[in-house]
Specification:
394 residues; alpha+beta; HSP40/DNAj peptide-binding domain; 4-stranded mixed beta sheet; 10 helices; stress response; Chaperone protein DnaJ
Length: 394
Amino acid sequence: MSSKDWIEKDYYAALGVDKSASSDEIKKAYRKLARESHPDHNPGDTGAEERFKTVSEAYAVLGDEKKRREYDEMRSLFGSGAFRRGARGAGQPGGMPFDVSDLFGGGAGGGDNRFSGGGFTDLFSSIFSGGGAGGPARPRGPARGRDVETEVALDFEDAVRGVTLPLTLRAPGVCDTCHGNGAKPGTQPVACPVCHGAGVTTRNQGSFSFSEPCRNCQGVGTIVEEKCPECHGTGGVTKTRTLNVRFPAGVADGQRIRLAGRGEPGERGGPAGDLFVQVKVRPDELFGRTGDDLTLNVPITYAEAVLGTDLRVPTLDGTVTLRVPPGTPSGRVLRARGKGVVRKDGRAGDLLVTLDVVVPAKVSDEARAALETFAAQTPPAAREHLDARVRRFS
């Protein structure tokens, strides 16, 4: 995209977000709009295709912190009118003409010379070309492919143990006919006749000199004279591909797995983007998870809580026996060490067993008589700290 695009196009409006929007808000807006306007979901709709290109172009700038910062600075400079030619000094009628080069050490005043040498022209050239301050414009070269995101749902046990699954994607891939260079088999891309392979052009406008990506070759430096009949010169086609993705042991719900170079192919042989796999873990009917620990709720009877018992409970790889001590209250947590999620260093979390004392809604006459005998021989619960407050309302 050219410097003119950066000045004239409002990428925030394209994504429907405010200029103060966070990176997450920008990403969320892009994903929503990209899904709605994706060509695969709107076959034959040229308007949707243009909207998809617009939001993709906007996210390519606003989704990159460095590019977003440069974009904001450029629009702020030009939007303020600070660099319009013929500006008057200090707003005074008839004042001395304002020479922008004075700001950068180009005047005779001998002021701050931090920008001397390349001066104003090199400063703006560096903004438009993405180079450093005072640096020469550089060709963009073959464009890197965009990153791709997808979502995979894993069973709870697979997430804990780790699993390798085939992942089928329908997404852009490298054209098998031209192998990504966009040229018809038997031919090769040639140097752009406008920029002579540099990928950038420079034009002078009075006091300004602008360097920007060559519009004829889109900054690549080469053009395809005879386009590949399969991909029509883009170097990529939409295809179905299957990848075997390894999800490591202990992968958590919401975690993203990055597969470098498995995203969209680059334009005309450029490097491919990355594939990010968002993990969703299905809940288990028995186990829960807190960090590297597994959790389990186990009901016990009132008699087991009072008298104590040996409790046999399941784990993901067998069973363990836990000792419930006499007088155990409801809600006590017992720990089975090493029976949780295996960490990256080989150590494992624990299984945390929460005991829930179950009180029966109905009991037999014999059980009731036994409980009444038990109650008569058991001292009442200590409630002295409540009695004083109760007496206040009696």
